[in-house]
Amino acid sequence: MPRLIIDSIRDLLGGWRDDPHTAGLSARAIALAAAQTHLTSGYDVAIPQYIGRPEFLEQVEHLAADVPADFHEIVLLDSKQNAIRRFTERSQRPGDPAHADAQQMLQQQGGIEELASMYDRLMATVESRPTAVVVPSTNGAVRDTYRKLLAELASANR
Fold this sequence. Notes:
Blueprint: H1 6-11, H2 20-40, H3 55-66, E1 74-77, H4 80-92, H5 97-109, H6 112-128, E2 133-136, H7 142-156
Parallel strand pairs: 1-2
């Protein structure tokens, strides 16, 4: 299943570091257009994305209704403390430039306190979305989390 990684799309936009917010909105618009193309061609699409405000989620939901396609909201979730720790550890390891970019942007926006606020906004969004399903995500248990995700999708499609 194609995954539309919005941060990867954003990275393709010239000068995105000068205005990450505007670039992020542009990347989301591009992702919606790509999702529409995939869905109307008969393919499934996954858009893994942190959603702290429901606007983009609502746009994806409307797209699915217009196409039409099934729409599933699945939140991979760990505790607040573990999520912060996992982000911090991931950002300290060399490798994926997206992790370094995320750390740099977070530092510009308030550091760990902002990360804690982001978690709270995610939880508020989840609580406002009655069809959202939470799948527990445990550090180091990627296969188990993936099995739970697939099981959730299978049960939703029955």
